[in-house]
Amino acid sequence: KISNWDNVVLAYEPVWVIGTRKVAIPAQAQEVHAELQKWLKENVNAEVAASTRIIYRGILSLLC
């Protein structure tokens, strides 16, 4: 159980990009960020959802 969220960072990489040449578009990363923030708000609280850092680890295609 996490008692202090101040130093928590959520980092993720989509399973479908690991070891492939597939890339995500920014909208896909933003969608996952929104879902993670929603989960934090519903399961922890709104303050944690707003302040927890979320990092996408992977390649983004800005040309899409």
Automatic annotation (TrEMBL):
Gene3D superfamilies the UniProt entry points to: Aldolase class I (3.20.20.70)
Q: Which GO terms describe its cellular component?
A: cytosol
Q: Which GO terms describe its biological process?
A: gluconeogenesis; glyceraldehyde-3-phosphate biosynthetic process; glycerol catabolic process; glycolytic process
- What PROSITE patterns does the database record attribute to this sequence? TIM_2
Provide this UniProt record's keywords sorted from A to Z. Answer: Isomerase
InterPro entries according to UniProt: Aldolase_TIM, TIM_sf, Triosephosphate_isomerase
Q: Name one GO molecular function term.
A: triose-phosphate isomerase activity
Keyword tRNA processing recorded: no
Q: In which pathway does it act?
A: Carbohydrate biosynthesis
In terms of SUPFAM superfamilies, this protein maps to:
Triosephosphate isomerase (TIM)
The keyword Isomerase appears for this protein: yes
User: What is stated as this protein's family in its record?
Assistant: Belongs to the triosephosphate isomerase family.
**Assembly behavior:** Homodimer.
Protein name per the record: Triosephosphate isomerase
Q: Which organism is it from?
A: Citrus clementina (Clementine)
